[in-house]
Amino acid sequence: MTTTVKTTCPYCGVGCGVNLSLPANPNEVVPPVSGDLDHPANFGRLCVKGSSLAQTIKSDDRLLSPQIDGQVATWARAIDTIADKISQVVKDHGPDAFAFYLSGQILTEDYYVANKLAKGFIGTANVDTNSRLCMASAVVGYKRAFGSDTVPCNYDDLERCDLLIMVGSNAAWTHPILFQRIVAAKQQRPSMKIVVIDPRATATCDIADLHLAIRPGSDAAIFSFLLQESARMGLVDDVFVTQHTNQFDATLQQAMESTPDVTTTAAFCGVDEHDLMTLSQWWASNDKAVTFYSQGVNQSSSGVDKCNAIINCHLATARLGKEGAGPFSITGQPNAMGGREVGGLANQLAAHMDFATPGALDLVQRFWQAPNMATQNGLKAVDLFQAIEAGKVKVLWIMSTNPMVSLPDTAQVRRALEKCELVIVSDCKAHTDTTAMADVLLPATGWSEKDGTVTNSERRISRQRGLLPAPGDAKHDWWAICEVAKAMGYGSAFDYQGVHEIFAEHAGLSAFENNGTRDFDIGHYRHITQAQYDGFTPTQWPVPEGKPEGTKRMFADGHFFTQDGRAQFVPINPSLPALKATQQWPFVLNTGRLRDQWHTMTRTGDAPSLAKHTAQPYVDIHPEDAQRLGIIDGALTRLSSPHGEVRLKANVTKSTPQGQIFVPIHWTQQFANAAVVSNLIPQTVDPLSGQPESKHGVVQVERIPLLQYALVVSSRPQSFSEALYWCVIPSDQGFRYEVVWPNGVNLARLKEAFSPLQEALCVERNHWLEYTNPMTGQLRLACLAGGRLDTVVYLSHQPEVVSADWLLSKLASSDALSELDRIALLVGLPANVEDKGNIVCSCYQIGSKQIEKAIASGSETVEALGAVLKCGTNCGSCIPELKHFIPKRMELSA
Ligand SMILES: Nc1nc2c(c(=O)[nH]1)N[C@H]1C(S)=C(S)[C@@H](COP(=O)(O)OP(=O)(O)OC[C@H]3O[C@@H](n4cnc5c(=O)[nH]c(N)nc54)[C@H](O)[C@@H]3O)O[C@H]1N2
Ligand SMILES: Nc1nc2c(c(=O)[nH]1)N[C@H]1C(S)=C(S)[C@@H](COP(=O)(O)OP(=O)(O)OC[C@H]3O[C@@H](n4cnc5c(=O)[nH]c(N)nc54)[C@H](O)[C@@H]3O)O[C@H]1N2
Ligand code: SF4
Ligand SMILES: [Mo]
């Protein structure tokens, strides 16, 4: 019999409900997960990443025991080492010599105890998190306007609005289930207008009625203009503005000065005047309007101002607190919101109270019975890593984040971690760019093993429920924190009998002396029992005592959490990114996400099917720029900035404008040698939120001449010390690499390096088949061991597209290679197998060549393709890409 639990997807902030089943026999493969029909975020649907979760559960690279200086250690020794060192540095240098660097991917309960230990017991507010890189600007924007970090809207509003403005969001790939809910709403009500504001043409533009490809960073001007247009067109709700807000006149005045007319604004933003007027007209004619914003807004040196420019428009027109209206910051990580709720940022205290909130310090101290309260803000992420490098912070505990990849200026991060006296890393994985820098490694339980709560983008708290046993010595993060607290002598405050007790305490603090003064109140749960916690159903906070059903929408009564209860308009002077392109650094670098990978690939990298959508890192470059630089599609290029260098293959595409390039964020040193894009990004931050401008760098792009491109597949892991570029592509059947060497590869050395090591394996020892085409410079090598294929190397002077699937299937096969196979191997053409091309539909593994063939045979719509190939009929994430295959002529007639 299988056991099934309802849990929550560990990927994006949509927070979909997932059914996870465990087979009766633990040796059997975990069956694919399914969507939870009852969960209000997804009603049973899952995107491709969610659907592939089962593939990621068993990993060969789990961290299974604590390690100290590279040696396996017991938990007891690891805990003592940590507790002793923290106590020592606190004694010698004060509490601020210690810091936590946490993550929006730990659970609320993990976050709560970390925050409590640091801010109440050790006495430092140095508790920051990767959420600083993610939604810190959105938090400050809300707090400036509403007095509290409150997301007013819910997912229904996205379906019910008549105008949806998506700013700096590629939700088709990053919040796919929400995107599909929007697509379905638009299909039902085609009059619904969708505007996408993004410098790039993305998959999200697929449903856009209008795409404003703005100059990077110029967003605030669009909304400053909309504010003054609102006044000009008589859209301002005078009653609401007078009764419920402050600062309107000054804000409008500033908007009129900054963006006086359509011509000035269009020029500033680099868009067409007509398009800007269209947006303005739609804003005027649709009262039900939602602005949905994400990292294109937040990751900016003026991110907070951009958020307030958006919120100003909604306040002026009273378009919030109502069905189908509001400024909706969409969160990225599964529990970014939970971290905000416990106060897990360095400039928060706890439970939506700040250090500066009158009476808050005393309130929290009494509730926690805390002996050593921190009294002021701690260091935000970038400042924290600078303070570590300066030797001020001496012990750092990193939990569930990979700063060696995700923080800007990776070289600085490395210097800081090298300097730090004790770096503790809690992770599920043994090998990441950050675990490589640790002095103490703590093995953490992962998604399918741990229990707790997460909060999604619409304030909905859901349970994550563990089902599988912890592998090896892995322990829950909250447990590790509490054990360190106990070893430091704070036992009674951290002696929880289960995770539900932590949640109950968190709920208790949220309600403590609250009486409606603070938005975050989940007092209903303050006495929650284990059984109630087990049966917890997804609910939107606030859930105060007496209101168990929670709260769908905020601010319906026009009351805000400022001192005087009124919302604040904030005058905005739109600005552009801090760094401008120059002759030396002529390209603007944009960064972001891909459909089928998650962050630093520590989970999605375990699912080979997810690597088929985009196998290698790349740089998008406009055809005219590419031509000018002599760069062809697939060619290796060097990107350099004042901070570092990366080497990536070019993807020549019109989706990025001229002068701008785009690089995905996912590839780390574990998957490629020179693809960490944060190497190039400066540590420029928003002055108010401290959020880095991760969407913006200035770089030089160069062609790298005289290269040899290679595809290597092998039954064994291989290394490429002399390569300019290598990338390993996850596969079930063997090891697949894409490699680029400088010209003049020494063949004899290559063969020696790649030959099977064990004599016993090779009856025909080092039997290399070889084929050269002097005309094209192509060289094909295949090594056989005992008649079976062991390693294949295809070399060429030009980037080649060769399907690796067939080669990998031959590696995995126990049959000896036939004569036909040997010929096919050398010719580079698979015999009797269909080459699918790049996988477009990950659910059914349907590739570009199959799609092209089906279109040529008359399946000329997405529906028709779905009928013959099934592509796009499961999770639907590939529909925008499917549409690109359909020639325009056909689309029109379809
Ligand atoms: N598949 C997948 N989904 C994810 C994640 C993932 O790793 N993979 N991560 C999750 C997380 S943590 C987050 S935070 C979210 C992020 O979700 P998104 O914010 O949707 O994702 P990004 O690709 O980072 O950036 C969105 C867009 O911002 C645009 N942009 C860049 N500069 C500007 C600008 O100046 N103005 C405007 N208007 N747009 C600009 C970029 O071109 C990009 O298309 O995704 C979540 N979902
Ligand atoms: N240039 C550029 N940089 C960016 C961004 C960008 O758009 N451009 N986006 C930024 C944003 S929005 C984000 S959110 C960050 C994300 O960046 P990171 O947070 O650095 O990336 P992740 O890969 O999610 O790292 C999570 C780590 O935690 C581990 N882990 C997973 N679950 C658990 C757990 O339960 N416990 C413990 N202890 N460990 C666990 C994983 O194995 C992994 O190593 O990147 C930021 N950096
Ligand atoms: S949209 Fe996809 S990744 Fe996001 S929570 Fe839902 S299933 Fe997970
Ligand atoms: Mo994020």
From TrEMBL:
Does the keyword field hold Transferase? no
Cofactor(s) for this UniProt protein: [4Fe-4S] cluster; Mo-bis(molybdopterin guanine dinucleotide)
Database matches in CDD domains: MopB_CT_Nitrate-R-NapA-like, MopB_Nitrate-R-NapA-like
PROSITE patterns per record: 4FE4S_MOW_BIS_MGD (PS51669), MOLYBDOPTERIN_PROK_1 (PS00551)
- Note the coiled coil stretches, chain numbering: none
The protein's matches in InterPro entries, at most eight in alphabetical order, are given as: Asp_de-COase-like_dom_sf (IPR009010), BFD-like_2Fe2S-bd_dom (IPR007419), BFD-like_2Fe2S-bd_dom_sf (IPR041854), CT_Nitrate-R-NapA-like (IPR041957), MoPterin_dinucl-bd_dom (IPR006657), Mopterin_OxRdtase (IPR006656), Mopterin_OxRdtase_4Fe-4S_dom (IPR006963), MopterinOxRdtase_cofactor_BS (IPR027467)
What UniProt keywords are attached to this protein's entry? 4Fe-4S, Iron, Iron-sulfur, Metal-binding, Molybdenum, Nitrate assimilation, Oxidoreductase
Q: Please report the stretch or stretches of sequence annotated as the 4Fe-4S Mo/W bis-MGD-type domain.
A: 2-61
Gene3D superfamilies to which the protein is assigned, alphabetical: 2.40.40.20, 3.40.50.740, ADC-like domains, BFD-like [2Fe-2S]-binding domain, Dimethylsulfoxide Reductase, domain 2
Pfam families, per this entry? Answer: Fer2_BFD, Molybdop_Fe4S4, Molybdopterin, Molydop_binding
Give the record's family classification: Belongs to the prokaryotic molybdopterin-containing oxidoreductase family. NasA/NapA/NarB subfamily.
Q: Which protein, by its recorded name, is this?
A: Molybdopterin-dependent oxidoreductase
In its UniProt entry, the species of origin is given as Marinomonas arenicola
